[in-house]
């Protein structure tokens, strides 16, 4: 049976299988559904490399339910590392569904991603409202809606550990006010910055880390005046620490670690189990 080689990485516990885009996978959605289920992964990144100056990596992310996401902060860091490992470059330009993203790869394999422009505009999020959704009551939480490449509904609470994410997030994620759905992100202030938990659209559950969600937390904190523009802050999902900077022009950077785990192959036929080799 024909096999597809893949590499397994994670960024602060957000797990991804990386497949070269020129692999003949006829049904990427079905392939991603099967592989994510077998690996308990958060997505499959199909990556294509163009060795220019700087090198360009085209990134397509398929999620565990077979849907695609325009942008993923942790996935972007993994994609940048993959490109750097193949070219030796410490700068990689990513082409994503949310537009081009510049990345810098550091000696410790942490990666800084330029996350583009953030927006609270209802048309950009999108949210079905005439004005920006700022601390608006929804499903029992004060929700602020922001686009960080994908839509996020952010709620600041006293302690994220007290939130029953599995129960409380779905009514927010599927709320009628979000025509394309939204990631539900909860955050609370900590001594170091913010603690974060996110229920991700397409994964349909809480993940160990969400990079766009970390940026959303910092963006909303900036909008509410909790932090000042240009101030770097640490946002801590369960999987580890991420550093976010939101500038005065509402562009942002995200820095965090990446880790290579193992390589393996997966059957092109999604009906066959993956056998892991390390």
TrEMBL record:
Pfam families, per this entry?
Answer: DAP_epimerase
Spell out the reaction equation it catalyses: (2S,6S)-2,6-diaminopimelate = meso-2,6-diaminopimelate
Gene3D superfamilies per record:
Diaminopimelate Epimerase, Chain A, domain 1
Location within or outside the cell: Cytoplasm
Q: Where does this protein act, in terms of pathway?
A: Amino-acid biosynthesis; L-lysine biosynthesis via DAP pathway; DL-2,6-diaminopimelate from LL-2,6-diaminopimelate: step 1/1
Q: Which residues bind substrate?
A: 14, 63, 73-74, 183, 200-201, 211-212
Q: What is its EC number?
A: 5.1.1.7
Q: Which GO terms describe its cellular component?
A: cytosol
Q: Which UniProt keywords apply?
A: Amino-acid biosynthesis, Cytoplasm, Isomerase, Lysine biosynthesis
**Primary enzyme class:** isomerase
- Protein task: Catalyzes the stereoinversion of LL-2,6-diaminopimelate (L,L-DAP) to meso-diaminopimelate (meso-DAP), a precursor of L-lysine.
Q: Which HAMAP family match?
A: DAP_epimerase
Q: Which family does it belong to?
A: Belongs to the diaminopimelate epimerase family.
- Identification of the protein by name: Diaminopimelate epimerase
* Source organism of this protein record: Halanaeroarchaeum sulfurireducens
- Name the gene behind this protein: dapF
